[in-house]
Design brief:
alpha/beta; six-stranded mixed beta sheet; 19% strand
Length: 480
């Protein structure tokens, strides 16, 4: 059991900056404007010898209705209830505001242990705010600076007994559980890394919430709610997965604000670190230009791709719509030929079982390896069925083929005159690999290489070895 510390406070007091400081990475987006963080973001924190889980939360606001700030507040209050302790952050330079006093009262009544910290405490300008913080009735405020790393040692001193007590409780609880034979020491499977990407308001967060079975991510009718790439872990029908919810990606020309640029950049980084990318489309307007760019991005990054069409419950003519979408998919995204196309409803949960199966299958294909002997027999058959061209009357010879890598599958063909082999013939071989070795949809990398490229002496001038040269010179000297 890991000790969970939730960082809470009103907007723009430095919660995300402190979160990044504790995890040692710039995971959470940070900007000068308030209200950047909207979802709960978890991270593995390290403070000296202490190891614990830290949760970055949305800024507490006084809204209690179903507006976006109201939903953000409920999500933060939920994190407070689940945490072992809360770090209540106030701004020492601004001082204590009425909003701070309201939420100090909420935290007192929550029953969760609270650590009061006054952030931005560097310099004499913060002294008055630190003194004001005593009036909140939450104990002595801990002065710190998340930006400059000041006060981290003092925070470790406060956290240490809390973490030790939580670990003792967890160890005591574990003594009452019997471990069955065969389960102890079992290997834990590394979770699949999955990124869900798409245009704004396609239903990415709603889909992940339905998979989790709880409202873990902030959702609503407004487009562009998600800003950070939030990772959640789940055991989905026996398969451990880590799913990244990303910000909606609009056309580059429409992205003007700095914060949206940061959000899109964070989503692109999630794609690069993912193994499988789920491209989520809106059934009402599938395969718009931006959808095609997003899918092409995933293919260029070499990721296994699954295309999911959301809001399928709202579609009336399902069979006709599905037929048209499959035809458009094959025509508009030939580089992802054969990739799974799954219809789902994030609202009702229909089609999620098929989505899980498509993800697992796409991962298996992405990791597929073909024996070299099998590849060369296949290559001989492909060349016999359709020989390569003969530029300037000289036939290009494909001599040997091997698989150099997986994730995605990459192949190397040794041949003569690789620079003169047309792109159409490479596509012919790639399509043959997809069909004959059951690799639909996954990116395939095919490299043509000349056998002369492997010769390290190809471009060296012929010369007499140095030792032989010495003997020749000595002989010439004796004769003289």
């Amino acid at each position: 059991m890991s000790f969970v510390l939730a960082i809470v406070g009103r907007p723009n007091v430095g919660k995300s900056t402190l979160f990044n400081r504790l995890v040692g990475k710039k995971l959470a987006l940070v900007d000068d404007q308030p209200g950047v963080t909207r979802d709960l973001r978890e991270g593995a924190a390290r403070l000296g010898d202490l190891r614990f889980t830290v949760v970055d939360t949305a800024g507490l606001e006084e809204a209690t209705d179903d507006s976006l700030p109201g939903r953000m507040r409920r999500l933060t209050e939920r994190a407070v209830g689940m945490a072992d302790a809360c770090l209540f952050l106030v701004d020492a330079r601004v001082g204590i505001t009425p909003t701070d006093e309201v939420f100090a009262d909420i935290l007192r009544r929550s029953g969760t242990p609270v650590i009061l910290a006054a952030n931005k405490a560097e310099g004499r300008a913060a002294e008055a705010g630190i003194i004001e913080a005593f009036g909140l009735g939450l104990g002595d405020p801990l002065p710190l600076s998340a930006e400059h790393g000041e006060g981290m040692a003092e925070l470790a001193v406060v956290l240490s007994p809390m973490i030790e007590e939580a670990e003792a409780r967890a160890e005591e609880a574990m003594t009452d559980i019997d471990v069955e034979d065969g389960e102890e020491g079992a290997e834990r499977t590394k979770p699949l890394q999955i990124a869900v990407i798409g245009r704004p308001n396609a239903g990415k967060s709603t889909l992940i919430n339905k998979i989790l079975g709880e409202d873990r991510l902030l959702t609503g009718p407004e487009a562009g709610i998600t800003r950070d790439s939030i990772a959640v872990s789940i055991d989905w029908d026996g398969t451990p997965m880590r799913i990244f919810d990303t910000a909606g990606m609009r056309k580059k020309a429409k992205v003007q604000e700095k914060l949206e640029k940061l959000s899109v950049s964070d989503g692109l980084r999630a794609v690069k670190f993912a193994e499988i990318v789920v491209v989520l489309l809106d059934a009402a307007i599938p395969f718009e230009q931006q959808d095609l760019r997003i899918a092409d991005l995933a293919e260029r990054e070499g990721r296994a791709v699954v295309v999911a069409v959301n809001k399928w419950d709202l579609e009336e003519h399902k069979q006709e719509k599905l037929r048209d979408m499959r035809e458009a998919f094959e025509r508009l995204l030939p580089q992802l030929r054969g990739a799974p196309l799954v219809t789902v409803s994030a609202k009702t949960g229909r089609g999620l079982d098929r989505l899980q199966q498509a993800i697992v299958r796409a991962y298996d294909v992405w990791n597929r390896r073909v024996p070299t002997a099998t590849l060369n027999r296949w290559l001989a058959g492909m060349v016999e069925a359709h020989p390569p061209p003969a530029p300037s009357g000289r036939r290009i010879k494909l001599r040997y083929m091997t698989q150099a890598k997986t994730r995605p599958p990459g192949f190397v063909v040794m041949c003569s005159m690789p620079e003169k082999l047309p792109e159409s013939y490479s596509r012919y071989l790639v399509n043959g690999l997809r069909e004959d070795f059951d690799m639909p949809g996954t990116p395939i990398r095919l490299h043509m290489r000349s056998q002369a490229d492997a010769n390290p002496y190809k471009d060296r001038k012929k010369s007499i070895p140095s030792r032989l040269t010495k003997h020749v010179r000595k002989g010439a000297t004796k004769k003289g």
